[in-house]
Amino acid sequence: MRRIHTYVFALLLLAAGLQLHAQTKLTPKGVLFIIGGGNRSDALIKQLVTTAQLGAKDYIIVLPMASEIPDSGFKYISQQLRVQTKVPIRNFDFNKHDVKDMKWVDSVAKAKLIYILGGDQNRFMKAVLNTPVYAAIHKAYQNGATIAGTSAGAAVMSKYMITGVQLKDSKYKETFDKLWDQNIEFSEGLGLLEHTIIDQHFLKRNRYNRIISALAGKPGYMGVGIDESTAIIVKGSKATVAGDSQVLRFISPANARTTTNGLLKFDHIDLGIYTAGDVIDIKP
Q1: pLDDT tens for each residue of 203-226
Q2: Residues 6+ apart with CB under 8 A from 236
Q3: Class of the domain covering 29-281
Q4: Contacts of 118 (CB under 8 A, 6+ apart)
Q5: What residues does each domain of the chain span?
């Protein structure tokens, strides 16, 4: 009988440990600072630096791999950041450097603020997916770092990342001009947001059709459209809006279905529009 009790107790400890591990995995200590692209005001960058809570021994890593002009992109963002902080700012371009250089990878994992430049989200993920750099970004986030990104650097936050390709139209457009079933292409993002799909430049480029297509493609997910010069600051399941414009949240398309010729249909969808200071629920 004593052996049975010991065995049961061991199983309970194991279950508790697994539950604690799952909770830890689902509740990172860090923050996401997701910018919708466009101009970054000094006030927005100041809010980013304040959010990161940089100490005297901390440093910032800029990951420029999405950009076609990574050195220029680094120069501009570092100039903005240096107005707000004196900590070192380092340019880690893994398109030009070995992703298995563990000295660099360890530096990414220990950074207090990681900033992902804009450009092409597919180019960024090609550089980091299934590499130690990917794991280092996640480790930094779990340990309390702020992970920031703008434009393409915003898109990569999602597990299912919008590539911009319409599967049923061979010509690229900044917005979709059709609401068709199975028209949107996803690829794997960083997955820092498991259940929310981010779209950027949202109002500026009229990306309503694109995010509605995304929700049709991934039932149960939330869509968040962030306009230019605007950000959401995500901590756990809450997101605070910052910046000059608006953030739109799309959830719960009701009775989603398609016609015989592939047109999307919903009875209704919940839509919220938010501005700086608003705190909204989000699916992390």
Answers
A1: 999 999 999 999 999 999 999 999
A2: 27, 284
A3: alpha beta
A4: 37, 66, 67, 73, 149, 150, 151, 152, 153, 154
A5: 29-281
